[in-house]
Amino acid sequence: MRSPERAYAPSNWKDSRRNTQSVVIVLAIIAALVLGGVFAWTHRSVTVSVDGTHRSYTIGTTVQQVFDEEKPGVTAGNLVSVNGNLITEGGGDPYSATVDGKAISPSKAKERGIKGGEDIAFSNGADKTEDYDETTVDVAPKLLMDGNAGAVSYISQWGKAGKATVRTGKVSGETAQTVTTPAQDCVVTVKNITPADGRKLVALTFDDGPSDYTERYLQILKEHGAVATFFCLGSKVEASPDLAKEIVDSGCQIASHSYSHPQLTSLDAAGVQSELSTSFADISNATSVQTTAFRPPYGAFNQETWLKTQGLATVSVIWNMDSRDWARPGADAIVSNSCDGIQPGYIILMHDGGGNRDQDLEALPQIIDRLKSEGYTFVTISDLLASDSSIPSEVASCDETMPSDAVWPTEVG
Fold it and tell me: Which CATH homologous superfamily contains domain 45-129?
């Protein structure tokens, strides 16, 4: 006989199976309800404002899809060159859009889904710049003039290169340049010398030497306790190097008057540079003086000629008082032309070479004595420059050279 427990075992197993199936069905129903709720929530309709009109869209609809659905009457932008010239009409952005007042690009509009309540506005598309290649280039400084009248001109600021980005359009082939670091322009200051504290300083200058008159000038200067500056021709220094050295040994200053006395404004760049560099070298060879100061023949030197120097010269000196000795008007006239109306800081023009200078020999002691009696002291051009607090000491030295990090201009400004 079977025991009671074994007789009822099949019935218990069937009940357990039914219970499991019931649980699975319940769980499936719950899952379906949850998934259905999630689907309904994620696919619900929301309201947005499109160009001021309320519209209903499924949540998550992209701004691009809203545009495609609404088809607002906007005009696409154009494809333009790197210089802004038209390449293809309508080849730019198809539209411009804002969401709650914030701009959104067409590419982002394809990703931005709505959540409901947004204020979306569409307008005409923006122009699009063509693709381009980009390079960085140097920007050359320009040559500027500070002032337009005065006896001295000097480089008060050296030029330095800037940087610019150059874009070359891949469609148009056009180029566009944008300066990223401005160049530092080279500046030439033109002015008269103003000695500090009103000191009564004056400079005697002699052109066209050295000559047969040089030693006699030096003797007169020594006897009357005065010094002068001799603007010498390189060709004359080559012919009489000992006289050039005597000028320096006497305590006077020597500087260039070009090599052969041409009008520098009529020469090309190579000619200007040759006249200056050769005369500077001749003076250095004869006297060991390194000078970059000069007096242009006929006083003719302008902005374009400065540009042609390539930075070989730093100081150009003309004059305030023209003795007119070149006209041989007589010693009295030379004295009067040199002294009448003179002011502190003025520069007197006389000549060492270029003809008979006997009248100058007669006039020179009288000029020195008269101006000394009026309280004037005779100084070299360097010392006169140094007396003006606005002129940098490196300029006053008359031997400054272009710094290694400077860049010479390629055009005037």
Answer: Beta-grasp domain (3.10.20.30)
**Tokens of residue 80, six digits:** 């333009």
The DSSP output letter for 340 is T
Distance between CA 343 and CA 329 in Å, rounded?
23
Catalytic residue list = 207, 351
Distance CA 54, CA 332 (A): 102
- The highest-level CATH class for domain 190-412 is alpha beta
Q: How confident is residue 254, by pLDDT bands cut at 50, 70 and 90?
A: very high
State the pairing for strand pair 175-181/162-169.
antiparallel
For residue 136, what are its two tokens?
């960085």
* The pairing of beta strand 86-88 with beta strand 53-58: unpaired
Which residues, in sequence order, are CB contacts of 214 under 8 Å at separation 6+?
230, 240, 243, 246, 247, 352
pLDDT tens-digit profile of 70-100? 999 999 999 999 999 999 999 999 999 999 9
Strand partners, 86: 80
- Burial grade of 386 (CB within 10 A; 0-12, 13-18, 19 or more): buried
Query: Looking at the DSSP assignment, which residues form a beta bridge with residue 23?
Result: none
**Residue 34 pLDDT > 80:** no
pTM (2 d.p.) = 0.78
Q: How many CB atoms lie within 10 A of CB 43?
A: 10
Whole-number pLDDT of residue 29: 72
Assigned token pair, 228: 């002068």
Is residue 321 within 8 Å of residue 334, measured between CB atoms? no
Domain boundaries, the chain: 45-129, 190-412
287: DSSP letter: H
**Separation between Cα atoms, residue 156 and residue 302, nearest integer Å:** 16
What span, in angstroms and rounded, lies between the C-alpha atoms of 174 and 91?
A: 18
Residue 309 phi/psi, 5-degree rounding, is -70, -20
Q: What does the pLDDT look like over 138-164, one tens digit per residue?
A: 999 999 999 999 999 999 999 999 999
